[in-house]
Protein: DUF2157 domain-containing protein
Amino acid sequence: MSRKFLETDGPAWVTDGLISEEQRLRLLARYPPEARALGLLPVLGSLLVGLSGLSLVAANWQALPEVLRLALLLGSLTGAYAAGAYFLRRGNPDVGHGLIGLGLILFGASIILTSQLYQLVGYDASGLVAWVVAGVALSYVYGSRLLVLLTVLIGAAVQTYCVQALGSFSYATALLVAGGMGYYWWRRPDAVSSTVLAAGILWQAGLLIIVLHAKITWFFVPAMLVYAAGDWQPNRAGGRALQGPPLVAAYLFMFGLATFGETDTYANVLQPPLLPYLGALGAVLALSVAGKRARGRLGTLPDWLLLLPGFYLPGGLPLAVATLVVLYAHAGSVLARAHRDEDPEQLTIGAVLFVAATMVAYFKLTWAFLDKSLFFLLGGVLLLGLSWYLRRRNAQVLAAAAPPVARQAGAPAPNAPAPSPTTPPRHD
Structure:
């Protein structure tokens, strides 16, 4: 159930006597309004204005006097921040935050251009780290999702530069993104910021694995730490949004393993030392289970099926069967949870995951001897049977819940005997 559904159908329920107006308001209070989607106009406006200014200045940069260069940098930076503060005071947060974001972009450009102006050769990323610090500070001051997005993107760009150009990993940048923005997310867990932050942390973790030349499966230890943080978040929507990118990464990995996993191609890059890896992943699992138990979310524990280390199995048939079992079990858990929560979006996702697992099973196991028409026939029968079962269960649940709801609304239960008519008083 969602707030939008309650807002559209709730008044009709009150009119029909199913619930009272007070109950409708109490239901709405249980589903707070979701944060508005991040507006594209301020983002695109900031980027386009910033890029146009940078391209114009860059084309004539060498011909400008040094004093004019500094004046342009300081003037554009100060002007963007001043204009943003002006529009915020006038009650226009979209334009105001967009201009503040432009000022943040110009701040980074000023660092780079000033370094070129005085021919400063950078052997570290201390100047660029200051750019990330500014982004974190502005995010806290203004509480803007646009600034959160820009800060995470800046952190990803700085870390990519460090890895590619300097051959090192900036732990300060990673700490600012994961720690600084992580605390911001904990206090303001809206869905957009949660998803952006999770994706940014996963990017940082991936670059760390590259720098350390570690087995790529170590990536899932920090990735599932992000997932476990979502289990501890009191806001269910914000916590689930944070868990989205780690789950997508885990599913794509398991899907790829089921499709392409062979011993001679994956053993050297996927199999870390068994005990250290399982110990680290087990510790994260324990943290996640504790959070689920504390927040009453043990129903999402089957998400961890995607982290079963099937890559330790030999390639070929054993690996294919094991990974397909995991994919089917995970799809089934999503469908069961969607049915229990009456969540149509999760039901759609579960059906898509079920079809994807069935396609992999066909191409990996039965392509050589099962006719394609028979495969599609079996797949269709399975989905129709699943749809029939879920509808039947839903009807049973609604039928069982109808008498209490009817009694609460003052109507007789469906199977209740009709009240006997009262004898009218006699007037002699």
